[in-house]
Design a protein that fits this description.
By secondary structure, the protein is of the alpha+beta class. It is 29% helix and 32% strand.
């Protein structure tokens, strides 16, 4: 019989995809009001590995990654996805999203993303939200699974996530484990 242990906190992140750079400021403001201080913000990257969002959001999409100072417990992620969907709706124009917010979390072993869509490798959490381990950490880097999204498989994105993981590791080491 296994021993049930206390769940350790994880680092909340979000990938924000937008059709205008000015939306990043507005979305980050909304997210920080709900989830607290943003402690990491990546440079703006082109989002060009898929045209999945183009019909709804337009061409020449851009993306950035952020993380939050306050750590969360992993079971909070489904409610966080619901809140991020509400923010997407708030910024929609004529029912077309202007922004896509993909929350997830990093722990020392992996990156977990959440989705409203089921698939063979996703696990149902609650309230219509599914989770997947998108990357795993081994040999001092994030590595991919066969189903990892192509953009998350790039060195650029994996290095950004590695920086966030480094920040998280420092928080754990310094005892800065504030939980939301």
């Amino acid at each position: 019989m296994g021993i049930i242990r206390k769940v350790k906190p994880v680092k909340l992140i979000a990938s924000i995809i937008a059709n205008k750079e000015k939306l990043f400021y507005e979305i980050e403001k909304e997210l920080s009001e709900i989830f607290g201080v943003i402690d990491f913000s990546s440079k703006i990257l082109p989002f060009n590995h898929t045209d999945y969002y183009n019909k709804e959001m337009g061409d020449n999409l851009i993306r950035k990654f952020i993380s939050f100072e306050k750590l969360i417990l992993p079971d909070q992620i489904s409610q966080i996805k619901i809140k991020s969907n509400e923010i997407e709706k708030k910024f929609a124009i004529n029912n077309y999203r202007q922004v896509n917010i993909d929350p997830g979390y990093i722990n020392l072993a992996k990156l977990v993303l959440v989705s409203t869509k089921d698939y063979s490798h996703r696990i149902y959490l609650s309230n219509g939200i599914y989770a997947e381990a998108t990357l795993f950490f081994r040999h001092n880097q994030f590595e991919t699974f066969p189903y990892t999204y192509p953009d998350y498989a790039t060195d650029e994105v994996r290095n950004i996530l590695k920086e966030i993981r480094k920040l998280f590791k420092s928080q754990l080491k310094n005892g800065n484990q504030k939980e939301k």
